[in-house]
Amino acid sequence: MNIITPTADGSNTLYNETIGEHYHSKHGALQESKHVFIDAGLKFASSEQSEISILEVGFGTGLNFILSFEYCSENHINLDYTSIEAFPLTTEVIEQTGYAAYVTEEIWSDFISNYDNALKTQQTLSPLCKLEIPYTTLAEFETDKKFDVIYYDAFSVQHQPEMWSDEIISHACSFLKPGGTFVTYAITGKLKRAVKANGFTIEKLPGAPGKREMLRATKGG
Length: 221
Ligand SMILES: C[S@@+](CC[C@H](N)C(=O)[O-])C[C@H]1O[C@@H](n2cnc3c(N)ncnc32)[C@H](O)[C@@H]1O
Hints:
InterPro entries: MnmC-like_methylTransf, SAM-dependent_MTases_sf, tRNA_MNMC2. The chain is an alpha/beta fold and 221 residues long.
């Protein structure tokens, strides 16, 4: 059961009763998404690029996706977005988040009208945006494709430690192109070591409100 809950910046998040955790920061869902994934991830990786491929771990409500879709549309960047989700929400729950207010009507309607089909196969939402939401766990996810950016947005290590094991981090990192960018809201010594072991250089960046630091890592090779 997921319960809609307001966060400190006025945007909503969901509280997942089974896991015992919110989908976003209680200090501000919208702020966190913009700070960690759009600013430190997408804007950083797409400067001077006309196309970008993103792999997200944990599609959830689609907040990171709609903000990415809008940013790429405004900046004429071709977006190829794949987001792994083991427990997809219903369209009804996603609509209750109120996130329609944060993007244009057109972006929201392109997203909502394609969401169910994107769980089955890749959908073309606009001339500049493709979306696919593989309905699987990260551990079982396989593809020959390599991505420019990974948004690692799993539930926290306290609530889902298996999503932060060295093996699963290494599995996720294997889908990134050389020179690609890995971003996540979290930063621990164990995570830094796991990412470094896969040939990444790491940066500690200021975290979203409520978190001192976050991790951005660049794949070598
Ligand atoms: C922190 S939330 C993601 C929030 C999301 N990015 C958003 O913008 O709403 C974590 C997500 O990971 C999903 N998840 C949990 N276990 C997973 C697994 N083993 N593989 C892939 N996704 C998983 C959850 O269902 C949830 O949607």
